[in-house]
Amino acid sequence: MGSFGQSCRVYSGVFLHYPWNISIGDRCVINSGVHITAPAQVVIGSSVLIGPYVVINSGSHEYRDRSQPIRGQGHKLGPVRVEDGAWIAAHAVLLPGVTIGRGAVVAAGAVVTRSVDPFSIVGGVPAVPIGNR
């Protein structure tokens, strides 16, 4: 792994792909069934809560060239950052290039396609602001 903080709790069934690109801060909780795929860097701050079955992926397939199979078009990469004290609720998805601001909340089932401001609450598909804390 890139780094792994102290006093973290990682439940069973967590999958880390490209672990050398993953850094996790102190006092984090990563619940069951979480998938973190990190062809580009994934940084998780301290005191972050990640609910069950969250997907964090710093890579996506290119697909725009209709004359080529998607499989042969390469990948689009973008680092993902989850700042200190954020909560990513169950079944949320974080896509390449997003930052989840300090203390933000991502509602259950949300698909985050754009960065989230600190202490804001987002939800939906795609995720949009629904409140502040």
3D structure, described in words:
The protein has 133 residues and is mainly β. It has no helices and 19 strands. The strands form four sheets. A seven-stranded mixed beta sheet has the order 2-5-8-13-16-18-19, with no helix packed on it. The relative contact order is 0.15. The model has no long low-confidence stretch (mean pLDDT 97).
Radius of gyration over alpha carbons? 15 Å
Number of helices: 0
What summary fits the major beta sheet? Answer: 7 strands, mixed
Mean pLDDT: 97
**Contiguous uncertain segments of 5+ residues:** none
In terms of topology, how is this protein built?
Elements: E1 3-4, E2 9-10, E3 15-17, E4 22-24, E5 29-30, E6 35-37, E7 42-44, E8 49-50, E9 55-57, E10 59-61, E11 75-77, E12 80-82, E13 87-88, E14 93-94, E15 99-100, E16 105-106, E17 111-112, E18 120-123, E19 128-132
Parallel strand pairs: 1-4, 2-5, 3-6, 4-7, 5-8, 6-9, 7-12, 8-13, 9-14, 12-15, 13-16, 14-17, 16-18
Antiparallel strand pairs: 10-11, 18-19
Keywords:
133 residues, mainly beta, 7-stranded mixed beta sheet, 5-stranded parallel beta sheet, globular
What is the gist of this entry?
By secondary structure, the chain is an all-beta fold. It has strands spanning 3-4, 9-10, 15-17, 22-24, 29-30, 35-37, 42-44, 49-50, 55-57, 59-61, 75-77, 80-82, 87-88, 93-94, 99-100, 105-106, 111-112, 120-123, 128-132. A seven-stranded mixed beta sheet has the order 2-5-8-13-16-18-19, with no helix packed on it. A five-stranded parallel beta sheet has the order 1-4-7-12-15, with no helix packed on it.
